[in-house]
Amino acid sequence: MTIENICYIPASKFLLQEKMDELVRYLCLSAEYGCPTEGKNLFNEFQKNLNEILDQYQHLVLSQKDSDEPDDLPTIQKLRPSGVRKMTSNFPSDYRRRLEGAFYGRMAGCTLGAALEFEPVDKAKAWALRFGDNFPLTDYWSQVKDPEATHYIVGKKIDLTKGHMDAVPPDDDTIYTLLSLLLLEEYGFNFTQENMADIWKKYLPLERGEKAPGNRGCWWGERQMLQNLLDGMKLPEAGTFRNPNLQNIAAWTRADTYGYVCAGWPEKAAELAYRDASANHRRNGVYGSMFMAATIAAAFLVNDPIEAVKIGLTEIPKDCLFAQGIRWALEQQPKDYQQAYDLVWKRYNGMFNGSALTNALHVVMGLQIGNCDFTKTIGETVAMSGDNDCTGATAGSIIGAVIGINHIPSHWVDPFQDRMHIYLNDQPEYLEIQNVCDRIELLAKKLINL
Question: Binding site membership for Mg(2+): which residues?
């Protein structure tokens, strides 16, 4: 796949959104007219036809093949460029310092981005101006819009501000890090996708038919997969049925723990990430997860985040769209968030801004601009918009693993009070971060001795 082969349909997309809005308005209008039986029947027929069309699109998407973008691990590995695969056979002597840097870095980047997730750059900048905050931000937000709005089941938006924070606020992107940890603890390094499904059903609080935004413990394809599982569907169908998010960002937001436990072993980190991601992603959605896991694993043994990125690239097919995009980003050398944003969306205009690729470009460019400065790295990355709690989290994870906890300014760490607020079933309301790091370190030591 090359960028020239990408089919962009932005005009059709906006027209469809407009027509769907018209339909909703007619439904509301029909309520005022007394909801005639003919109207209900018409809507039921529309819904049936729409589902049939969606199923046809799903079949069309899944039937497309590209020799540069396989979905099976053996072929993916055959198409990799040469790489180091395993950087050391010894447990890194400074592992704990780097692990805490990576973990706190992930928590900080996620918390910074979550306040204005997906807000356009100009709107985020306007909110910062209104609140008197720097932009890009150099500390947590002093205020947020809709402060009393629910934030991931057990929190509120105001929890994301520096004056009201007493722990890492709840967020799906921090929960994914814990889910991967629980998966490895309960099933080991040879976990199956069925094991992963069991972990999701056991710990994620989503019931059949539960759609209210305040109750969402996971998003997009993850919620769809969990809903399918709860409805009795089995893998692999449960991961792809009615899931248009096959090449989106979510899989690589689940990858960090695999990088943490495979410090210095990027090939193994990518293998674990593949097994996880391919449950409900395909092609570049999977490669993104493999790339991020491998990059994080490499970050534990290098002193330059871009070196880690280049190592991460050696674990995915060299000619896939994702790899082409990362190599392009490394050539650009943007000076700031605005130039990075403009470059990405000039090249990928019309692509969904929740895609694995475009958001990964934000991470890589944020690492370039940050130049080993933690505050600048997460601030510039989050300022690029997109799924910026995810991008801020992953950029923070990578740079944190490179520089270690002692080089992360205390104002990013101290407000958490060494604990994180979570919403998983059968788990406490808060977890101590040091205890979580102890558990990750134990797994990493087990792996190195296998």
Answer: 387, 389
